[in-house]
Specification:
The chain is an alpha/beta fold. It folds into 2 domains: about 35 residues, no CATH class; about 120 residues, Response regulator (Rossmann fold). The chain is built from 5 helices and 8 strands; from the N terminus they run E-E-E-E-H-E-H-E-H-E-H-E-H. Strands 5-4-6-7-8 form a 5-stranded parallel sheet, with helices on both faces. Strands 1-2-3 form a 3-stranded antiparallel sheet, with no helix packed on it. The relative contact order is 0.14.
């Protein structure tokens, strides 16, 4: 039997929500280390939508909402500042729309995880997906509906992988 050395991964766990934790050896004592929460930036010109998304991400998903903004210009600024694991973008916003912000973000970071959250359907949403958005959710946000919430979480898993 081989003994683990300090700093080596001893074991890991994934609970029913997909949360990952691991046990590492540090100074020959076991300590539980958890993955840092995913960083999220939320961009929408509706304060109501921002609040609903922020509440969902922080309470249900245990993600860290590092910033929010109300238009595409904020999206660019906040993405560049925080380099989040996920940014959500509304399509229709003042000053700079979501599709334009998507193009600019992907120009800076082609691997950016962008999720469109919008009432806009059809060709515009399809163009966003073709441009490189990793997923989309249609408004209205119905987090009180278990089927909607399950679909939302599945979309997040498709974008971010297991978390």
């Amino acid at each position: 039997m081989t003994a683990n050395r300090p700093g080596e991964l001893r074991d890991y766990v994934v609970d029913e929500t997909g949360f990952v934790g691991c046990v590492i050896l540090n100074n020959y004592q076991e300590q539980e280390a958890v993955m840092p929460p995913k960083k999220v930036v939320i961009i929408d010109d509706s304060k109501y939508v921002v609040d609903k998304l922020e509440q969902f991400f922080t309470t249900v998903m245990q993600f860290d909402v590092v910033a929010t903004g109300s238009d595409g210009r904020f999206a660019l600024e906040l993405y560049r500042k925080y380099h989040p694991d996920l940014i959500t973008l509304d399509m229709m916003m003042p000053n700079m729309d979501g599709m334009t912000a998507l193009k600019e973000i992907l120009k800076d970071d082609p691997g950016a995880n962008v999720m469109m959250v919008s009432a806009v359907r059809g060709d515009s949403m399809l163009r966003c997906m073709v441009l490189g958005a990793k997923g989309y959710v249609e408004k209205p946000l119905r987090f009180s509906d278990p089927a909607f919430t399950e679909d939302f979480i599945e979309t997040l898993k498709e974008i971010l992988g297991q978390f």
